[in-house]
Amino acid sequence: MDSAELAGKIVYTWLTLVLGFILLPSAFGVSLGISELYMKILVKTLEWATLRIEKGVSKESVLKSSASVGIIQRDESPMEKGLSGLRGRDFELSDVFYFSKKGLQAIVEDEVTQRFSSEELVSWNLLTRTNVNFQYISPKLTMVWVLGVIVRYCVLLPLRVTLAFIGISFLVIGTTLVGQLPESSLKNQLSELVHLTCCRICVRALSGTIHYHNKQYRPQKGGICVANHTSPIDVLILTTDGCYAMVGQVHGGLMGIIQRAMVKACPHVWFERSEMKDRHLVTKRLREHIADKKKLPILIFPEGTCINNTSVMMFKKGSFEIGGTIYPVAIKYNPQFGDAFWNSSKYNMVSYLLRMMTSWAIVCDVWYMPPMTREEGEDAVQFANRVKSAIAIQGGLTELPWDGGLKRAKVKDTFKEEQQKNYSKMIVGNGSLNLELD
Amino acid sequence: MGATHSSSEEVRELEGKTGFSSDQIEQLHRRFKHLSGDQPTIRKENFNNIPDLELNPIRSKIVRAFFDNRNLRKGLSGLADEINFEDFLTIMSYFRPIDTTMDEERVQLCRKEKLRFLFHMYDSDSDGRITLEEYRNVVEELLSGNPHIEKESARSIADGAMMEAASVCMGRMEPDQVYEGITFDDFLKIWQGIDIETKMHVRFLNMETIALCH
């Protein structure tokens, strides 16, 4: 056999294997247990690696702890407590103490900017990209690492790229075909089938292991699904377990092709860039969508940007003004197997996907939560905060009142003025002066 | 400083000068690089990216304090254009808790250093006195966000506080005696006997005592 035929045969065998072991089972939602086996081996290897590192480290008696603990003990006492104690009168020189201390705390360590970079791991997971604090330990460990690199780049990466390619093509072709059919329940069922199959294939493309909790609260038609945002993969993870209508801007390129194809099969809500600025238009269209009870639930990420999965930032009130039932969902990734956070200022989409495909796996938990509606006398902002707290508690994330938009923009002046208003209220008591002049 | 694991000689030197441990210095170095955008020096503009700091009413004074030559021990007045990591640590060290196991003299010295840092924050023209104008300036900055307070009220508050300071420092004054301003010694007098400990320190955690959970 000459080399062309040999190459042809290899590709043919490869594709048949992929088809048989991965594609067909995912079309039927059946699992062959290969990924479970892979995960078990992976977990054992990482445990072994961690033990080796700890043994090696204790010899040198240097324990470098995770940076997420922080370098200072923050004094979070509210302004009243912080300023009291030394004051005899309404205004004291000492008030400057409190503010300078707060200022220095902010300079040494601020809660917000650390959320826009990846979480640091407590123990190394044999990926170079997470190797910040850990040094060379032993030849065995290095060998395992080299083996890991080979496995990830030469075995897993081609497999995953093939799967992703097949998945996306199938999605585009499938939805275009289904879109040709007339409106009927058959069309809806077929479109669901196509969506689910492609999502399962794409999840396999990332070696994703997802645990869904509380499936009884899965979002229903005519509702709005709200979740915390860590990466574009969130969409994939949620759509593997149910179909949603997406909301977003129309993109160009590959994303644009996918968007146009998807909208043929079932109604999604895509906006032109100019339309996004008009909030009333956006709200109107979304209201129309959920009013139709036959349409799929809308999926919205109210944070507006990707956060690194250690905390939940401010939920923008726009999604909560539409009305309807909100189904909160909490998504928490396990950073040990691969870091899912997309730092859009550091990596573009393609390098991000490559990083995803060369990690060990994507492991995450998804919790569906009981539906919430806006109560009497509650405005959109309070409702948004209520939902945010619920999601933060369920996912084990910290809650921050800050706006995710701070990744790129500055603090609004209104925020600054709030703090100064509070302080001056304390001294002057809402306009009346309490001075005693000697 | 070069790479993350910089030469231990430089670190030891900094340890001696500022009193931070080597792990703390490494952490602070990472923070410094983050603020400076991987440059070797920081300028005033680099402090603009800290959201928590934006809320602080005396933000400009705090940032200014980092560049003040008196705090950096580089002169008696004026502002530096940029500071390097050693300067950064020097300013941070003003906020370290006073080690009460030291002898009384050293404790007093540390206290004086902290109060001097604060004095410099008020005394913006570096003439060694906090005049009424400078005091008013600080009060106005602190109260500037509230639309209900007019400039007059802010002035009266400053005037009142200044009067009290005068009475503490000068005792009874003659009718036409003018109080020039609060000198550093007067400033110390005001704070005599009052414990400013909890107000003016930031507790830096000792990294080695944080253990990994097994």
Automatic annotation (TrEMBL), chain A:
Q: Which SMART domains match?
A: PlsC
Q: Which residues form a coiled coil?
A: none
GO CC annotation terms, alphabetical: endoplasmic reticulum membrane
Q: Where is the protein found, in the record's own terms?
A: Endoplasmic reticulum membrane
Q: How does it sit in the membrane?
A: Multi-pass membrane protein
Record's keyword terms, sorted: Acyltransferase, Endoplasmic reticulum, Lipid biosynthesis, Lipid metabolism, Membrane, Phospholipid biosynthesis, Phospholipid metabolism, Transferase, Transmembrane, Transmembrane helix
Membrane spanning stretches: 12-34, 144-173
Q: Name one GO molecular function term.
A: glycerol-3-phosphate O-acyltransferase activity
* Protein's pathway: Lipid metabolism; Glycerolipid metabolism; triacylglycerol biosynthesis; Phospholipid metabolism; CDP-diacylglycerol biosynthesis; CDP-diacylglycerol from sn-glycerol 3-phosphate: step 1/3
Domain Phospholipid/glycerol acyltransferase stretches: 223-334
Q: Can you cite a GO biological process for this protein?
A: triglyceride biosynthetic process
- What family is this protein classified in? Belongs to the 1-acyl-sn-glycerol-3-phosphate acyltransferase family.
Protein name (record): Glycerol-3-phosphate acyltransferase 3-like
What is the native source organism of this protein?
Answer: Lipotes vexillifer (Yangtze river dolphin)
Lineage of the species this protein comes from: Eukaryota, Metazoa, Chordata, Craniata, Vertebrata
Supply the gene name.
AGPAT9
From TrEMBL, chain B:
Q: Name one GO biological process term.
A: cell differentiation
Q: Does the keyword Metal-binding apply?
A: yes
Q: Does the keyword Mitochondrion apply?
A: no
Query: What molecular function terms (GO) are annotated for this protein?
Result: calcium ion binding; protein kinase inhibitor activity
Q: Where in the cell is it found?
A: Cell projection, Lamellipodium; Cell projection, Ruffle membrane; Cytoplasm; Membrane
What region holds the EF-hand domain?
110-145
Q: Which UniProt key words apply to this protein?
A: Calcium, Cell membrane, Cell projection, Cytoplasm, Differentiation, Lipoprotein, Membrane, Metal-binding, Myristate, Nucleus, Protein kinase inhibitor
The membrane-topology field of this record reads: Lipid-anchor
Q: One Pfam family of this protein, by short name? A: EF-hand_6
Question: Which PANTHER family does the entry link to?
Answer: CALCINEURIN B HOMOLOGOUS PROTEIN 3 (PTHR46823)
Q: What the protein does?
A: Functions as an integral cofactor in cell pH regulation by controlling plasma membrane-type Na(+)/H(+) exchange activity. Promotes the maturation, transport, cell surface stability and exchange activity of SLC9A1/NHE1 at the plasma membrane. Promotes the induction of hematopoietic stem cell differentiation toward megakaryocytic lineage. Essential for the coupling of ERK cascade activation with the expression of ETS family genes in megakaryocytic differentiation. Also involved in granulocytic differentiation in a ERK-dependent manner. Inhibits the phosphatase activity of calcineurin.
- How does this polypeptide assemble, per the annotation? Monomer. Homodimer; disulfide-linked. Interacts with SLC9A1/NHE1; the interaction enables an optimal Na(+)/H(+) exchange activity.
Q: What is this protein called?
A: Calcineurin B homologous protein 3
